[in-house]
Give the backbone structure.
Amino acid sequence: MQRRNFLIWVSRMLGSAVAALVALPGIQYVWSTLSSDTSVSNTRRRIVRWKDLRPGEPVQFSIYGERRDAWHIEPQQVIGRVWLVRQPEGTSPAAQGVTAFTSICPHMGCQVQKSAADASFVCPCHRAAFKLDGNPLQQGAERNHTPRGLDQLPCELVKDDAGDLWVEVEYQRFEPSLTRKVIKA
Amino acid sequence: MRHYFDWLDSRLGYRSFLELLRGRVLPNGPSWLSTSASCLFWLLVIQVVTGLLMMASYSPSITSAWASVHFIDQTAAGRFIRGLHHFASHAMIVVLILHVTRVLIAAKFRQPRELIWVTGLLMIPLVIVWTVTGNPLSGSQKGLVQIEVEGHILGAIPLVGPPLQRLLIGGDEVGNLTLTHLYFLHVGLLPLIVGGLCAVHLHQVLRHSDRVVVVDGPAPLPYWPYQSVRNWTVLAGVMGIISWWAWMHGAPLDAPADAALPSMPRPEWYFRWIFELRRSFTGDSEFLITVVLPSVILGCFMIVPLFDRWLSRRMSAVFRVAIVLGALGGWSWLTFASLSRDWNDPEYLAAQQKSLELADRARFLADRQHVTATGAAALLRGDARTQGPLLFARHCTACHSHVDGQGHGIVAENPSAPNLYGFGSPDWIQGMLDPERIVSPQVFGNTKFKKGEMAAKVRSLFKKAGPDGVAELKCQLELIARALSAEARRPDQIARDKHEQADIKQGRELLVEVGCTECHKYHDEGDLGQAPDLTGYASREWLTGIISNPAQERFYPDDQNDRMQQFAADALHPELNLLNANELRLIVDWLQGEWVQPDPPRETSKPSGAIPKRQLAKGD
């Protein structure tokens, strides 16, 4: 190898090494936000007495928990919202079961509201509409944007020591914009 | 003086550069159409200057962003500077589009100027992303909901979407990192990229300036001052409009972001056409409209120089005009369609009105109470006027309405309990003491108390009084209502209560005389257990009690309670109550009409307008 070529090679190598010295940690630093940081272990919450829900009338409840936001960790923050619907009386033998939905729209993640006009849910962002059972609601010719129904959450009725029935919900979050329901890792 | 500039020039050689700029000659001479480039350049400079100034006071975090932006608005000239920055960003997009259109029509992309064309076109998405990263920095409801949706639009792209979304949002929920990431993009990365592109763009412009060869006739006029004066005239006009807007309106500032507040977010005007187009696409295919289509359109514009080579000059001109007209027509049509759909939607208009009110309220509270370290969202979260109606609608409207005489307020779908508007006021209490009103749906008409003892007692009072005694009875009941309403200590009544001590005293005596205390307890008279306690009736303490647990002995013990829920009965496990302590306080405050209010205007009707302020304060 000629002396000149060797020097060129050395310059390139040293230059690349210096560049890598900054670039690699830089990439790693930026990449860190890609790894999931929400490791909420126990998200099962006792929410409301079953008798305090009215049949066929959706009510929203907040889920409280420790909220972690980068350098802040705060206890007793609203980490999510759920809609509870007690089945209208006499619809099924398992009568008066309760269904729980997350309030996050499966379309673009906005907060789904109770429709003022009729018994349904509607998203204020792109007008995705849902029936009270969570399935997409077709309204006239208007196309419903949602890729899937409202995400249902595991929900159970539990009796306490005093004999009251309580609604317990396990709060989960799902990837939006997919036709399938995928729990956020 | 000249000596120093000579010295500088001998080192820098700046005069020859200036000469290059001044001596430039546009091929067709100076023209008004050619002013768009310089206008754009100086708008960019103004954005950099105003942006840098705001960086001196801005703080990107969920707790401080809104407060610091509000602080900028309160700082001397801060509101104007932020207004300039805001409106100039919109102006930049408009002028950029006009500039590209002019270049396209004039076919200034022909070789060797292809790179000028491409770098210029790239500026469109970059400037738009620049504004997209800027809008949420205020930490406002509108801004953060917008970026949330934009993040999801990005995330809907197959494969690359989700990681890009996480990078933009800084995790999977909008939070502190969202703001720092956007800030980094807005004031760090994007200025570098746009600056670099600008440098290439301008370098190419100068390098490929047309050499004007004068065959005969006078040479075209040089750039300086003939083009320059046109440039400055247009820029001054544009800046005039921008400053007028900035001065008159300032940049908008929506309420601090809070997912619990209702909002109906819409994209900015330059995205409306996509918003309209996507209506016919759902779920998995939406990214075709939101991401692929704009990219394809941009790509098509970039390869216009290629098409131009294949077409004859004449055909190319037709082609280019067709593109401009088609794009402009399609854009306007879609934008108008989207806007008119919203303008004809009462729900949307109501939501916009509501968010304006929330924004005003938040700014008012920020001025009055100041933002604490917990962040600006706490302003509205702790505000009874804001939260009261929301809590009432969520928890109470299954039975109660809250409607004034004109029908304004919160109307329950199936009201089955009293209308609580003005609860505790003399008029409300008189409703209880009127044989017809008490059995109307406004009071007990839809409850089991319609046939209860209270209604019966009122009827019997009127029966006993007979036609001759009605006037006197009514007068007595009015005094009773007056006395009872003083128990509520509503803030809108306290001043009046002081003035009418005599009536109230008389009312109290009548209350016992008429026989209310046969069932009700009232201070030292009567006993608990048969009917609600009238001591402190409708006061904050009384309301807190009945909402917490209406089945207490003070209110409706045993089977007396009709259907009212216990909202905060469990003191040991407050997290299991329907209302937490804060919510309970807010709803009670709201029912009482107790919230921070603007100062009433100083008394102006008095003839002596020159009373010193201190004296007025004493008189209050």
